[in-house]
Amino acid sequence: MKPNHRIHSWLLAILALQFTVGIARAACQSPSALNRTGLTVEGKNILLDGKPFKILSGELHYARIPREYWPARLRMARAMGLNTIATYVFWNVHEPKPGVYDFAGNNDLAAFIRAAQQEGLYVMLRSGPYACAEWDLGGLPPWLMATPESARALRTRDPLFMEPVARWVHRLAAEVGPLQYGNGGPIIITQIENEYGNYGSDKAYMEQLHQLYLKEGFTRSFLITADNWRNIANGDLPGVFAATNFGIGNHQRGMDALEQERPDQPLFVSEYWPGWFDFWGHPHETRAAAPQIEDLEYILKRGVGVNIYMFHGGTSFGYDAGATGGKSFQPNVTSYDYDAPLDEAGHPTEKFFAYRKTLATFNPEPLPAVPAAPPVVTLPATQLKERASLWENLPGPISSEDPMPMERFGQGFGYILYRKTLHAAPAGELAMDEVHDFARVYLNGGLAGTLDRREPDHSALKLLAIAEGTRLDVLVADDGRINHTHEMRGENKGITHSVSLNGAPLKGWQVYLLPLGEPGTGLLPKRFTETRIDGPAFYRATFTLDKVGDIFLDIRKLGKGALWINGHAIGRFWNVGPQDTLYVPGPWLKKGLNTIVVFDLLNTANSSPSIEGLPTPILAGPTPERTTSSQQ
Asked: Of 110, 113, 146, 569, which is most buried by a Cβ count within 10 Å?
């Protein structure tokens, strides 16, 4: 057959064009992916592609920021003088059920990383599998708590933990592996595990994780471990670069500790804490800026870089906020403002400009101008007149001999109701072993008492004589799982063990799963009335906006519960403070009609709840006095 010379010439032209485009693309990369060597160590210095490099990083979390605002927050990072952003990867967000993965919408991690690259930022990927971050169970999926055995296996070499971890890291690698620096992406650092030294010291466990990351192709970015400065020796791993974390005033002690453990290695501070997080019922945490500038200059002159945790905290939307254990259970508020340089709504603070001034001296080029912050709109007081009783909107029950926690039934977050018909009994004690976290107890629909895990005695109620056929309801709120230490292993939610009346165990329960507002549950009511309701209830109202912007929603007329606007889970609220406003992002609002739904545990027939949009947030509402956190 004779060759067709026209087709032949056309193919050669196409190939030549593709070759030219390929060369042009490579030339646009500086340096190209073909000759990137990434981060390397030379003595006490870090090099990027063979040139001295200072890591100027700040942390922000994609899951705590509406996707529409990712570019704006990243531009603010560049304007403060950062060349790198760090983010945790929250496993529980991406694998809500075993083997069911979600990397869409606000969970599109790869899109977030590409957005950072488009803004000229490198990325430090803090991939876990454990995060901490004041996030529910430290980012581990609650389905790992489905059996006592799997709960005890958390962060160990037990196959009950490591097999799900292996599947997860394999899936994560498929998502972000191509975005490693050596492949042309912005990920210059990948962190394995997180602050393991605060949890254990099993080097074999750490090495097993290390080998898993290597197997899954995390070889095109620089692998590190990160630990609190007091526990570096427990959590580091021979052959893997070690970094350390500390707060204000610990610059010398923290870096001394790292240098003592790694005398021949450059010093990198993987977390420097410019603020702190808040608990329900405790004062709002703030930290002065002046000592931080002294710390920052010391760190950057002595070491090779810093990651400011947090540069921008954002919001723990929905049920994502975690809790702290220790002497008492302390659930975190919805806001993760953290007193960070960029506040919860993306506005630069005085601390932002102080940091910018210092970081400018470590940048080879002038810093870009500070962008305008997103607009804020207000909302007149709006009565939540429409109501729906929880009792009239229950799903079908599950029969259970014992009142087991929600994870045993496949539920991850929200609320759970335990119901039982009682036999006649004399006055005595209703005891629960034990309630996680906040329970309202009802007899025939009337409130009999409250059990609050934050209180020293939260396991029993005194009851009057019980008539035959009395209906007992125990409605339990999940206030967030402890996100650190071995206490995580006991963080099942609901009634975690048993209930007894006058010492006799109560058996034969009806259990109602209430993962209110979680995607796919469909458990928010559709029918409302304006009839007054006593007991736990839903409220609904509509409001109209002439223009869209962020709103600081005043929640001081509400009790305790959760709130949704236009289907978006805004977060938990609680009238114990310090957080008296919820941040509602403008991209989740609409010009014209908007719908708000509230679930309130503390509702009474006499309550008249309302909401209002304020021009500024209130994060320091009245709470009992306490001393400043000493956990740093």
From this structure: 113
Measured distance CA(520)–CA(208) in Å, rounded? 35
Domains of the chain: which residue ranges? 31-360, 379-388+525-614, 396-514
175 is catalytic: no
Catalytic site residue from 271, 285, 491, 518 = 271
For the record, the structure tokens of 363 come out as: 């940048």
Buried b (16+ CB within 10 A) or exposed e, 393-429: beeeeeeeebbbbbbbeebbbbbbbbbbebeebeebe
Binned at pLDDT 50, 70 and 90, residue 605 comes out as confident
Average pLDDT over residues 538-546: 96
Q: 5 pLDDT band (50/70/90 cuts)?
A: very low
Span 366-399, pLDDT tens digits: 999 999 999 999 999 999 999 999 999 999 999 9
pLDDT digits over 171-199, tens only? 999 999 999 999 999 999 999 999 999 99
Tell me which residue has tokens 């997860």: 168
Split at pLDDT 50, 70, 90, the class of 33 is low
Q: Token digits for 169? A: 């890291």
Residue 422 carries which side chain, given as an amino acid letter?
L
List residues bridging with 449 in a β-sheet: 441
Catalytic annotation on 271? yes
With residues binned 3-state (H G I as helix, E B as strand, rest as coil), the percentages for the chain, rounded to 5, are 25, 30, 45
| C-alpha torsion sign, points 557, 561, 565, 566 | negative
CA-nearest of 425, 274, 277, 286 to 358 is 274
- How many C-beta atoms lie closer than 10 Å to residue 530's C-beta? 7
Sign, CA dihedral 588-592-593-599, equals positive
The H-assigned helical ranges of 29-108 are 70-80, 91-94
Backbone phi, then psi, for 338, in 5-degree steps? 65, 5
Does the structural domain 396-514 have CATH classification 2.60.120.260?
A: yes
Strand, coil or helix: what is 1? coil
What pTM did the predictor assign? 0.93
Q: CA 62, 63, 67, 69: dihedral to nearest 10 degrees? A: -70
Owner of token pair 């009565």: 383
Residue among 316, 275, 404, 408 at smallest CA distance from 131: 316
Q: Do domains 379-388+525-614 and 396-514 have the same CATH topology?
A: yes
- Amino acid (one-letter) located at 397: P
Span 35-78, pLDDT tens digits:
789 999 999 999 999 999 999 999 999 999 999 999 999 999 99
Alpha helices, DSSP H only, in 441-595? Answer: none
Summarize pLDDT for 316-355 with one digit per residue, the tens. 999 999 999 998 999 999 999 999 999 999 999 999 999 9
CA distances to 44, 420, 474, 538 from 444, rounded to whole Å, are 70, 10, 11, 20
Backbone angles phi, psi at 182, to 5 degrees: -65, -15
Backbone angles phi, psi at 162, to 5 degrees: -70, -30
The CATH architecture one would assign to domain 31-360 is Alpha-Beta Barrel (3.20)
Q: Give the whole-angstrom CA distance, residue 345 versus residue 76.
A: 12
412: Cβ–Cβ under 8 A, 6 or more apart, which residues? 92, 96, 141, 142, 143, 406, 515, 518
Q: Do 263 and 277 touch, CB atoms closer than 8 A?
A: no
The reported pLDDT for the residue numbered 16 is 36
From the list 59, 95, 134, 195, the catalytic residue is: 195
For the domain bounded by 379-388+525-614, which CATH number is listed? 2.60.120.260
